[in-house]
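Our preliminary data section would be incomplete without showing what the modeling component actually yields. Below, a chain of 181 amino acids is followed by its predicted structure, encoded as tokens that our downstream tools consume directly.
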Amino acid sequence: MAGELLTKVRKSRALLEEFLIRREKIGRFLTARLGNSVDAEDVLQEMFMRLSHADTADEIKDPGAYLFRMAMNASRDYRRDHARARVREGMWAETQYTIQAGGAVFDAPSADAALAARQLLMQVRNALAELSPQCQRVFRMHKFEGLPHREVADALGISRRTVEKHMHTALRHLMKRMDRD
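Predicted structure:
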């Protein structure tokens, strides 16, 4: 058992030493595949980390060919991961920005608009709190949860007409309170 472990460590160390000897050639190979030396250095670092933690159980007949195959696979993975990241970042940017005249414009409201919206929301909440609990539930289920009158009626065990009356009461109350404030 200890002999097997020592053999694996020796093989891993020999492969890591072979990598260090061929690092410059592998770096040129990666630069050609990836198009720049910065990305090539990233992949070389990743290879080094993999090799330093590798558990090489099988005999590698041609360490040079193995390392170049590993470099080719690592460069493919690197390009694929970066392409996915660009897509993710593009999708995120689309949710955060609007493109106008060829440039990205941040969609967030101004600080004044955000403050005004928070104040309005607080007024609505305060006005809703003045309604009966049943009227509040009906309003929230219909307006906030998007349930149609029939589903609100079924969920609360009341008639559709009662739901309509509660909605009328709530909306009339909100309009009065918003005009007053």
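The CA atoms of residues 135 and 166 lie 5 Å apart. Strands lie at 97-100, 103-106. Preliminary results of this kind motivate Aim 1 of the renewal.
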